[in-house]
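Example for tutorial group B:
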């Protein structure tokens, strides 16, 4: 398994779920790309999946990848404290109002991510839950006209092939 394959598999799973709910999905590899996406509101709710980091796991060949799942509400969100935005109605993509708040959307998306399972891949850790939740926080940036909520998830996996080679020391 590689981080790229894993990230693309998660994106392929999330994209149709987000789009079925009338949202927009984006995959991002960098913080700059994510900020650029968030600065230009999709006009409805959006989910951005961003690769965050990769690190060595607990044993040879084991790796851990952390991703950010960012939920952004559409344009027209008033500038106010995050607590004031929990139940504001927003226009959906079709022009109708939706009562889905940012917190409700974020909870829904996090439930999708936590439910991910990779039964066909022995090189992905199958300990429940597969996606380990981490920190979550509000994203505030003066260049971004909307409010976002970010959630970190870490997944353990094994690299494709790790071979042992004997090296002689002279």
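The residue assignment follows.
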């Amino acid at each position: 398994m590689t981080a790229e394959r894993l990230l693309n598999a998660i994106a392929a799973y999330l994209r149709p779920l987000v789009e079925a709910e009338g949202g927009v999905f984006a995959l991002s590899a960098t913080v700059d790309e994510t900020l650029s996406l968030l600065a230009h509101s999709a006009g409805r709710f959006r989910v951005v999946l961003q690769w965050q980091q990769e690190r060595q796991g607990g044993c040879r060949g084991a790796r851990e990848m952390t991703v950010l799942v960012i939920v952004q509400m559409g344009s027209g969100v008033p500038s106010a404290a995050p607590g004031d935005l929990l139940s504001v109605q927003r226009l959906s993509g079709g022009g109708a109002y939706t009562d889905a708040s940012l917190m409700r959307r974020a909870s829904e998306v996090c439930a999708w991510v936590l439910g991910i399972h990779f039964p066909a891949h022995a090189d992905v850790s199958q300990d429940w839950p597969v996606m380990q939740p981490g920190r979550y926080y509000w994203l505030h940036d003066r260049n971004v006209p909307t409010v976002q909520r970010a959630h970190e998830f870490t997944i353990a996996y094994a690299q494709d092939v790790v071979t042992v080679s004997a090296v002689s020391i002279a």
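Residues 34 and 83 are 23 Å apart (CA to CA). Compare this with the pattern of hydrophobic and polar residues in the output above.
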